[in-house]
Specification:
291 residues; mainly alpha; globular; transmembrane helix; membrane; EmrE-like; Multidrug DMT transporter permease; EamA_dom
Length: 291
């Protein structure tokens, strides 16, 4: 039986994860992408390691569990976030990246039946398609999806595959671990993975100011610790394709937060897209969405 608090997990996750787009945009005014990611992961480890020695939570008993935690951490932190930020670096628009990342639930639904044994019925497929259409409407109402060149699309596809494989891997091999243990191992793998990109691509200069400090604190505490923890908990407790379909709501909610926080106006057609995406997510995440 799933813990009762997981009932509220989708809403909390969506708010924290979606807010990261606006906050990251603020932070990137003061630091380069890979440097920001390394700083973010380093701060998480600076919190997790002392807590580990104070609380002394159990470590994974099997080598395989260590490996699975590290693989999921590497796929999310290095591959997903790393390649998304590399796409931004070569000039891909934020709306283009968000739109491509919205295909993750579709890939999960395609692979899940063979990978995890979860059936994906007609109702869920209809919900996935409706959610994708709604997300595309929102993104296109806010920014033009311009060509990004082959390297840009390569980075986006790699990031998309990173999050997709991480979701499927966690569902099949993930076990319940103490949050401190899980974060320490996962972010350790992500930090090691992102270092080569930072050392070869960035100047590592940071313009320190209070706005940057607040943004990093949000990315560390809300995005890196709480949101990722909720995502993995939801994947373990439910159907991976249903949980992944929540990602359809991230671009619309992120657009709403950008409107409030950054003054980026969403046209009326964009609000229509939000409603369509919400309907799609509802259909795809219903418990009897298998048939």
């Amino acid at each position: 039986m799933s813990p009762r608090w997981l009932v509220f997990a989708p809403v909390i996750f969506l708010l924290l994860w979606s807010g990261g787009y606006t906050v990251a945009k603020i932070a990137l005014e003061s630091a380069e992408p890979m440097t920001l990611l390394a700083l973010r992961y380093g701060c998480v480890l600076a919190i997790m390691i002392p807590l580990f020695f104070i609380i002394r939570p159990p470590l994974p008993e099997r080598r395989a569990d260590w490996m699975h935690l590290a693989i999921v951490g590497f796929l999310i932190q290095t591959v997903y976030f790393g390649f998304c930020w590399l796409a931004f670096r070569v000039g891909v628009a934020a709306g283009t990246v968000a739109l491509v990342m919205s295909f993750q639930p579709v890939l999960v639904a395609l692979i899940a039946p063979r990978w995890t044994g979860e059936p994906v019925g007609m109702r869920r497929w209809i919900g996935l398609i409706i959610g994708l259409v709604g997300t595309a409407i929102v993104i296109n109402s806010r920014t033009e999806v311009a060509g990004a060149g082959l390297i840009g699309y390569f980075f986006m596809i790699m990031g998309l595959l990173g999050m997709t494989i991480a979701s499927l891997w966690e569902k099949r091999f993930g076990r319940s671990h103490h949050p401190i243990t899980q974060n320490m191992i996962g972010y350790g793998a992500g930090f090691i993975g992102v270092l080569p990109f930072m050392l070869t691509l960035d100047t590592m200069h940071i313009d320190w100011n209070w706005e940057f400090g607040i943004a990093v604190a949000y990315l560390v505490l809300c995005n890196s610790i709480l949101a990722i923890g909720l995502l993995l908990a939801m994947i373990r407790a439910g159907d991976v394709s249903a949980v992944s379909s929540l990602m359809f709501l991230v671009p619309p909610i992120a657009a709403l937060m950008a409107w409030i926080g950054l003054g980026e106006i969403l046209p009326p057609i964009g609000w229509l897209g939000m409603v369509i995406a919400a309907v799609g997510v509802y259909l795809a995440t219903r418990k009897n969405a298998v048939g």
